[in-house]
Amino acid sequence: MLLSRYFLPVLKESPRDATIVSHQYMLRAGMIKQSSAGIYSWLPLGFKVLKRIEQIVHEEQERAGHVAMLMPTIQSADLWRESGRYDDYGDEMLRITDRNKNDLLYGPTNEELVTDIFRSHVASYKSLPLTLYHIQWKFRDERRPRFGVMRGREFYMKDGYNFDLTKEDALHAYNRHLVSYLRTYERMGLQAIPMRADGGPIGGDYTHEFLVLAETGESEVFYDSAVTDLTFGDREIDYDDVDACEGVLQEFTTKYARTDETHDEALFADVPADRQRTARGIEVGQIFYFGTKYSEAMGATVQGPDGKPTPVHMGSHGIGVSRLLGAIIEASHDDKGIIWPEGVTPFHVGIVNLKQGDEEADAACKALYDQVAALGLETLYDDRNERAGAKFGTMDLIGLPWRITVGPRGLKNGVVELTSRKTGESEEMAPEAAIAKIAEIYRAHGLVK
Ligand code: 5CA
Q1: What per-residue confidence (pLDDT) applies to 122?
Q2: Would the CB of 293 count as within 6 Å of ligand 1?
C-alpha cells in the first residue's frame, strides 16, 4: 500500500474524551471514528488489525475442531422468551419492533439462537460432540460505554457453543476452549491469564475469564505471581486427547487467580506472601459450562445410546475480538505510539523514502516493496513528499514493528536501514539483507514459508 493512496487520517492531538492510551492511539492513528456513544466506524488501519485478529481466532478454533458459521445480528424475541432471558436481560438488551409489530432484538449473545439451530437439526447423540461458533457483531446497551473499543455498545465477538451428551464430554469441550484460547492470545503477543470468574447473565458456576494485566483494566484481580510464568508456547496438543487438555487446564488454573467477583481472602492467604498480587486486568475472553440450562428450557434433546431423549450439555465461549485491539495496545506501546506484535500488525513492514522523487531512492523503495510482497507480506510505503521527521512520526504512531528507511546517502554505500519499533535499534545493511531478515522474523511467526 502506498501511503499517498491510503486513507490514514492521523490526528496530532489526543481528543479530550479519550482517557486511556489505547483509545487515544486508536483515534490518533486513524483506526476508528466514533459514530455515537460506544459505536465506531472501523477506518482502514483499524479494520486491518481487526481482520488479523479475527483470522487468528478462526485458525485456532478450526485447529481445535470447532465449526465456523454465521448467525444474524437481529434475533426474534420469542426465542429469548423460551429461555426466560427476554425479561431477565434487562436494559442492556436493545429491543426493536418491526413494521408488523414483531418483537426483535439486536443480539447481545447467541445461546438461544444456536440452541434453536441445534434442536432443529440434531436428533441423535451420534452427531456429537459438536461445537459451532461465529464471529459477529453484538450490541449491549452498556450504561457507561467507555475507553473506546474496550467497552463498546456495538462490539465484535467470537462466540462458540458446544453440544455434548454428558457433563464429562462438555467439560472436555471447556478444556479444549481453554487450550485454544491460550494459543490464540499468545499468537497475538498477549499473556491472558485464566481466572476463576462469575457466570453473570450467561449462567453457570463453572467459568473462567481470560485477563490481560493492565493498569487501565476494568476488573480487579488477585493472583499468585507464579501464574505469570506460565506460557503455552509451541507445544503440540491433540485436541481429542482428554487427559492432555485436562492437564493444561490443571496447569493453568490450579494456582490462585481470581477476579474480584469470586475472590476469596481465606484462600488467597494460602498463597506465599511474596507471591500475592493485586492488580487490574482487561477481560479478553470468557468460557462457561452451564450444563442443561438452555437445552432443558428450549427442548434441545438428542436420543441417547439407550434410546431415551436426553437434554444436551452445553457451554459457551467468547473472545472479545474488537476489545482485543485495545488490550494489545495497552500491553504494547510507548510514548511515541503503538508497537504492534508481529502476529497482528496491520502492515508487516513500513518503508520510508527519505527523498521522494530521487530516482535511485524511488527505485530502491519500489524494489523492496516488491520483494516484501513476494514473501507474502504487506508493506505500507510512505511515498509522500514529507520531511523525514513527519514520516518517522507517523510510522512510530501507527506502530509497524519493522521499518526500512531508504535514502540517497545510504544507497551510495549500498545500504538501507532496518529499524525495530520495539527496541528503536537501527542497523544498516544491504537491501537484500534487510529482506532476508524480514523473512526470517516473519517465518518465526508462521507468516512466511
Ligand atoms: N455467550 C458468552 C460466551 S460466547 C458471552 O457472551 N460471554 S461474555 O459476556 O463474557 O462476552 C465475551 C467477551 O466479549 C468478553 O470476555 C469481552 O472480552 C467481550 N465483551 C463483552 N462486553 C463487551 C463490550 N461491551 N465491549 C467490548 N467487548 C465486550
Answers
A1: 98
A2: no
